[in-house]
Task: inverse folding
């Protein structure tokens, strides 16, 4: 999962610099080894450049050998054009494929992006994907479990999602996972 919540002087300057950069420099920054730079680039693209070119750049990143480029490509697809999400439907098949990625962070990002698109757009909620994400709530990696729980929280009215979250609340031994399940239950209720 990608988060930038630090409010350090470096982060503020980097984000301001990214906002003033040429679009080609911003696209190039999506491949930067520093996760903060990649994330800032994605955030600028998400709001300032929700274009077909940005969509295509994100798609190209998904085939990279570098896990962090596939991760940021997934992140861009899940955020591009928020709140209007002009490429939501086109993004879903690419995100579905990433659910089988070997990288935990890529898979977690894809799950989060799917959940984000489910919550903010009118994309179809494919029942096979819902079932797959429900199964991910039992993954051995906590980040996959939490991403899955939050993705399911966007399925308001879905009985399978509600049952899965209740099961986690009753059975999980991991406090952090239970806390996220409580948040999801509040959203679904």
Result:
């Amino acid at each position: 999962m990608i988060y930038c919540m630090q409010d350090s002087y470096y982060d503020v300057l980097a984000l301001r610099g990214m906002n003033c950069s040429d679009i080609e420099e911003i696209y190039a920054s999506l491949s930067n080894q520093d996760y903060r730079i990649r994330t800032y680039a994605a955030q600028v693209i998400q709001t300032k450049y929700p274009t077909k070119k940005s969509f295509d750049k994100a798609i190209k990143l998904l085939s990279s050998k570098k896990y962090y480029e596939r991760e940021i490509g997934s992140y861009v697809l899940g955020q591009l054009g928020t709140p209007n999400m002009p490429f939501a439907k086109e993004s879903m098949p690419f995100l579905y494929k990433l659910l089988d990625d070997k990288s935990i962070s890529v898979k977690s990002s894809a799950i989060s992006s799917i959940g984000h698109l489910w919550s903010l757009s009118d994309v179809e909620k494919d029942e096979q994907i819902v079932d797959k994400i429900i199964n991910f709530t039992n993954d051995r990696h906590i980040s996959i479990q939490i991403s899955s729980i939050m993705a399911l929280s966007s399925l308001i009215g879905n009985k399978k999602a509600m049952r899965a979250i209740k099961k986690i609340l009753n059975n999980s031994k991991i406090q952090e996972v239970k806390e996220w399940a409580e948040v999801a239950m509040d959203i679904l209720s």
In short: Residues 1-5 have pLDDT under 50 and may be disordered. The chain has two domains: 1-124, 126-189. The two ends are 25 Å apart (CA to CA).
